[in-house]
Every structure is written in C-alpha cells, then in structure tokens.
Amino acid sequence: MITADPDLVIAVARSWLGTPYHDQASLRGVGCDCLGLARGVWREVVGDEPFPIPPYSRDWGETELHEVLAEGARQMMPEIMPAEARPGTLILFRMAPRAIAKHVGILTAPDHFIHAYERLGVVEEVLTPTWARKIAFAFLFPRD
C-alpha cells in the first residue's frame, strides 16, 4: 500500500491546533476528541471515512478482549512497529496498564506529537518518555 506524504499529514494535523476538545466530535475549529482529530486528518489526506464510527467510551482504563481501536485502524492503514514510528505516523496510546489503547496522536517530529486532550483541545507537545512508553500501536496514513 502506498502511504501518504508525511509532510501533508503533519500540515493537516497542525491546521487543527487550537480546536476545542469535544467528546466524539470531528470538526476543525469547532470541536474534536483525539479520535475525531485522526478522523479529520483522514478525511483531508485520504478521503471519505470508510465506515461510520460507533459511539465509544471515554474510559481510558477500559479492559476488553479486543483492541477495538487498533483493529479498526488495521482495516484501513498499514501497521508498523511503534519503534519504527516517524513523523506523520498515527500512534495509539495505552493509558493504563492492562487497558486497551484508547488515545490517539500524530507524530510531528521524533519527539513531538499532536493530540486532542480534554480541557486543552488540540495541542502539539513534547513526546516525553512517559508518553513514549504508552505507545502501543503505530499506523501510516494511506494515499488515496
């Protein structure tokens, strides 16, 4: 699968900076959550979303038998090892031990990423060692 230009992915993600946090929304400048940010970047880089996103829980400590978010991403994006993640890569974070991955960000540099965070909205910040340890999965945006 041919992947999208990482510079385009980063530029589109940065165009969402300052968007307020709003659970389960995906409108640049109006509101989004972390998955909504990824969905918005997808729409601008790849095209229409391939399937509707069902409602989801905000519980970062949720434990399931299946990695729902990662399994959904695998249906439409090439997966790479987290250690191979580079700028423009979608990264999924496991926020609590033994919980499923429930937070999403996009690498903008080896040590920075963009994500939507409650009370902060869409921000770009340093990928600290604490954040880096929580990366559970990594995916590349395809090119349409």
UniProtKB/TrEMBL annotation:
Alphabetical list of InterPro entries matching this protein: NLP_P60_dom (IPR000064), Papain-like_cys_pep_sf (IPR038765), Phage_pept_NlpC/P60 (IPR011929)
Domain NlpC/P60, first and last residues per copy: 3-142
Organism domain of life: Bacteria
Coiled-coil residue windows: none
Keywords associated with the record: Hydrolase, Protease, Thiol protease
NCBIfam families the record matches: phage_NlpC_fam
Entry similarity comment: Belongs to the peptidase C40 family.
Listed name of the protein: C40 family peptidase
Source organism (scientific name): Paracoccus methylovorus
